[in-house]
Amino acid sequence: MTWQKSSYCAEASNCVEIAAGSTGDVVRLRESSAPGIELTTTPDRLAALLNAARSGGLADL
Fold first, then answer.
1. 30 with 3: CB under 8 angstroms?
2. 16-30: per-residue pLDDT in tens?
């Protein structure tokens, strides 16, 4: 599995990393400072989360 860091991450910072599962129906997320802890989701659910964040839909959380 190949992990990719966020483009907003500085070299020495804690970063969000993402990797696709082998079948493409799972997306894995982790923080670079805690690589042993992973979250899994689907591409559709991740897209919905990112769209909500971009549109300000998570402001009340």
1. yes
2. 899 998 787 999 999
Q: What tokens were used for 3? A: 């992990």
Cα-based distances in Å from 6 to 11, 26, 49, 61: 10, 18, 16, 22
Strands (E) in the chain, as ranges, are 4-5, 16-20, 27-31, 39-41
Q: Residue 12 has what pLDDT?
A: 62
H or E stretch covering 50 = helix 43-54
pTM (two decimals): 0.76
CA contacts within 13 A on the Cβ side of 54: 6
Mean pLDDT of the chain: 88
Q: How far is CA 42 from CA 3, 8, 25, 28, 61, in A?
A: 16, 22, 6, 9, 22
